[in-house]
Amino acid sequence: MAPVPMDLDDASPALRNLGGANGPPTAPVTEVIANFRPTKLFNREDIEDSKSNPYILSIDFDDPGELCMTSESDRTIQIYNVKEGRHDKMLISKKYGVKLAKFTHTSSSVIYASTRENDAIRYLATHDSSFIRYFDGHEGAVTCLAMHPGTDNFISCSLDNTVRLWNTQTKNWTGTLYLNTPFLSAWDPSGQVFAVACPSSGSILLYDYRNYQKAPFATFDIVKSRGPGDPEMAFRGWTKLEFSNDGKHILLGSRGNGHFLLDSFDGNLKAFLKKPNGGTRRLAAGENDGGHVESSGECCFSPDGRYVLSGGKSDLLVWDTLMTPDSKQVLEPAHVLEEKREAAVVAYNPRYNMIATADQELLFWLPDPHA
Predict the structure, then answer these.
(1) For the chain, is the Cβ count within 10 Å smaller at the N or the C terminus?
(2) Which residue ranges contain the repeat WD (predicted)?
(3) Are 370 and 320 in contact (CB under 8 A)?
(4) Neighbours of 2 (CB within 10 A)
(5) If you ran DSSP here, which 8-state letter would residue 213 be given?
């Protein structure tokens, strides 16, 4: 499979030089954030004997930032070489389906949730497509997988109203929390704290990882702190939960008219990140109406923690968290990166200034060196 360049420009030289001296791969994000441009498009329909592109359900990068992985609605995992700007391999999970695929801290192994047969989480070696282990226990669809930032421990959330903690070295879970609609989870950058978002109660719960059996040490009430956000979105439609890498903020994504930027220490609303044209057509975590496709979230922080990026029906929006919101706590986008395609899934490379967005096609973004 070969990548298809957009007619905007041929991305091959830029991507091949991503780690070299000819580009700004590790320049401060603030120097390049306004200059990102869609650079290379990967279109399955043009390459395979396929009548249409499947929907891309999730995007993830490995720790070195050299591989990009998608899980797709045709029950495949696709892996791309970032520096070369090319497709590397396709892994097929026809029997079990695949979503929420995540790299472990070893680039040659991944975990992912099932969409067929049962609700097990699968641990796969990518070099030979062999299963290392199954993680059985959930009795409802998995809605979120969150890898620990420093170890191969991970958290899973499920429609069965449990949160389970796992270690990849054993098939049995190491801990369980019983909560109502615990559909999203995230680790803080230290790995000492994890958060669980429960939309039905409009709350985010924070746990000490060493003492998670005890009650959460903090509960953030989104209903109380939503600011000008859509009241309905305080109880439903949550798409993403993420800590910033500097540990100062929590991002709660919403498929409504904006996202919630919270102070990670007291849960107060720092800003309501307004989306001028609303959200994507994807389902939020835990939703199922039979007519739409789920996603792993259309928003994320930049690696420096300063910016929040979000997709939508078109364009890529960027908010600067250092900007002061208006008197109603609304923060308008600082930059609008134009692109006609819907961006239903968004991820920022952890090592390089490179962004990936997707709906039915995967798109790589790089800073324009001539801007």
Answers:
(1) C
(2) 135-176
(3) no
(4) 9
(5) T
**In what side-by-side order are the strands of the sheet with 76-81?**
56-61, 67-72, 76-81, 86-92
C-alpha 171, offset from chain centre: 25
**263 by DSSP, 3-state: which?**
strand
- Residue 251 CA to residue 37 CA, distance in Å, equals 24
What residues contact 62, with CB distance under 8 A and at least 6 apart?
Answer: 69, 103, 107
pLDDT tens readout for residues 298-321:
999 999 999 999 998 889 999 999
What would the pLDDT profile of 185-229 be if each residue is shown by its tens digit?
Answer: 999 999 999 999 999 999 999 999 999 999 999 999 998 888 777
Residues 6+ apart with CB under 8 A from 367: 23, 24, 27, 32, 35, 36, 37, 353
- Please report the sign of the dihedral spanned by the C-alpha atoms of residue 354, residue 357, residue 360, residue 363: negative
- The CB-side HSE value for 52 (13 A sphere, CA atoms) comes to 7
User: How far is Cα 232 from Cα 276, in angstroms, rounded to an integer?
Assistant: 18
Strands ordered across the beta sheet of 307-310: 299-301, 307-310, 316-320, 335-337
List the beta bridge partners of residue 104: none
Query: Residue 18: its pLDDT value, please?
Result: 56
Mean pLDDT (the chain, rounded): 89
Contact 77, 62 (CB under 8 A): no
What top-level class would CATH report for the domain 4-367? mainly beta
Asked if residues 214 and 231 have their Cβ atoms less than 8 Å apart, the reply is no
Query: Per-residue pLDDT tens for 74-126?
Result: 999 999 999 999 999 999 998 999 999 999 999 999 999 999 989 999 999 99
Burial of 190 (C-beta count, 10 Å sphere; 0-12/13-18/19+): exposed
> For residues 58 and 101, what is the distance between their CA atoms, to the nearest angstrom?
7
Pairing of strands 162-167, 153-158: antiparallel
Question: pTM of the predicted model, to two decimals?
Answer: 0.92
